[in-house]
Amino acid sequence: MNFFMLLMGHLWGDYCTQTHEQAWDKKSRNGWGLYVCTVHCLLYSICIVMALYLLPRFGQPLGDKEKILVFKIFSAVFVSHFVINRYNLVKWWVEKLLHRTIPAPGEKVTVVGMINLLVYVVVDNTFHLTLLLIFLKFLWPEFYATNTI
Description:
The chain has 149 residues and is mostly helical. The chain is 74% helix and 0% strand.
């Protein structure tokens, strides 16, 4: 159940709260891009914390240790998501290591370009979920102790 909640938080944060324009603008090397990326990462981090920790405990007050844990998870998720998104690490990985070209916005997309975009999405999700699982291993070991799926 824990992994399902993690996946739901990821999907809500990365897809349901992000517009098409935000997905492109967050990588822009100007003040607007920085703002858009920051807002996206805040929403993403909120979705992760809500799905993983707050919703399963809805109505229960958080103790001091739990508040610190929520802050640590939120911070780790925010920073990692910001770095991956703002600095285009997935695009670099796909283009430099997998030797696939990602079509530019407005460019006519071929079948190969569409496949490359799909690879990009899969690599992006893999990066984010892998980092989330690593952070949880160190910040909240109990996540794994009760994890069935």
